[in-house]
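Pinned message: reference record for MurR/RpiR family transcriptional regulator
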Amino acid sequence: MTALVKLRSERDRMSAIERRIADFIVENAQLLRDYSSQQLANALGISQSSVVKFCQKLGFKGYPDLKLAINEAVIRADSNGGTLPSPEDVPAATAQGYGLWLRKSEAEEATRLINPPGTLTAVAEAIGRAGTVFIIGLGEDDLHARALALRLAQLGILTVHNFDAAHMTASLSAAKPDDVLLAFSEHGLQPALCQLARHMRSQRGTVVTITRHSANALRALADLALLVSAHDERTHIEPLLYHSALQHLLDRLFIRLFDADGGRRARLQQTLERIQPLLEP
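Predicted structure (tokens):
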């Protein structure tokens, strides 16, 4: 994980001052080599000790180590590891699309790094042995909840999808100890979803939450938590990064479920064959 990716992936867990430092470093990464810790502190109107503590919290010995890591990340990004074109080489007509693709790639990388393979495996195993998987998301979160419910059903996994908390409460009354509740919530603040999570825990089921990489009420109730890291100062871009990173995470989960069981692979093929005639004119 490069220092810049680490800053972006840890941003949700930072205090307000730490986020200011992180954002300044990310936005001025190419100029950071000319900044001393005192100059950085002066630019942000904070104490030099705050800068040092920020570096140590990220796992660096001090500011010089962070500055060196940032410089290495900038050099790596400029060289693109010999695989990606530099922005200057991209035609003007496609520069905007290239920039968006690059930001999505960064968000997907950060999200992959904050979800250890063991966690993704544990979620896949919980879903695989569940008698029923209950899935809910409110508002825009329901877009991903609905899509995942369809994919799980295609694998032959019994799912109950709902976008109404009251209806889901009634459904959870039949939940059994091995069942799973998948709760989608970008910020994890909806009281209704927290109530559903508590209900599921009282049924001795497993609660899996999908939220941003932040401390939030819903995540605190999870047995297993999947996290998304996606940030951009532009309010019209950040949701695009979030949905892209989340979809990539769910795709990885689906592939694990598909690869883990030959019966599921066969059921998916059979289901697709049954669906195809329904889509033909």
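Pinned by admin. Summary line: The two ends are 49 Å apart (CA to CA).
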